[in-house]
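Deliverable D5.2: sample structural annotation.
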Amino acid sequence: MGFNGVFYGLLTWGPLYLSETKGFAIGQIGWSTLVIFGAGFVGELVGGWTSDWWKERGGSANLVMRTLLGVAGVAVVAGLLGVVLVPNPLAAVALLSVVLFFLRWAGLYWSVPAILAGRQDAGVVGGAMNLSGNIAGIVTPLAVGFIVGGTGSYTGGLLYFVGAGVLFLAASVVLDYSRRLGV
């Protein structure tokens, strides 16, 4: 849920944020969005490669997943806090690119159902994971819309994303990736 709270929030509200608070024209929004989400694409590849590389060299599932997802969570939260604080438009785009790089790095979550539930029950765990994530995908744009509409500022919306990032971080580091679930 935390992952999708950040992802769908930036997907739905990011372009409007750049337009209304940073003064970007439509063309600048397009290029900025390409850079931001392109960084996410690269992050997903780097995260997967790093995970495989580390596991092949003997890293335990707990060490690899908690470390990589923990680093990603810290970077997401720090980057989002930075976006709240920086007035410079290019710095905001750079920070949002870092956020998406590390958020998509957490594409490692696609391996969690197989790690936790094995072949027999990976579908059930994956379905529950996707259900909760898609609930965040529904709630987040609405909640941020109410926050921005009610306050006239994106600060509260960005802090909502920070909260979702904290949830993402906490869930990532408390999961025991070495223990199979009895689903």
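Annotation notes: The mean pLDDT is 93. Residues 2-174 form a domain with the Growth Hormone; Chain: A; fold (CATH 1.20.1250.20).
The annotation will be released with the project's public dataset once the embargo ends.
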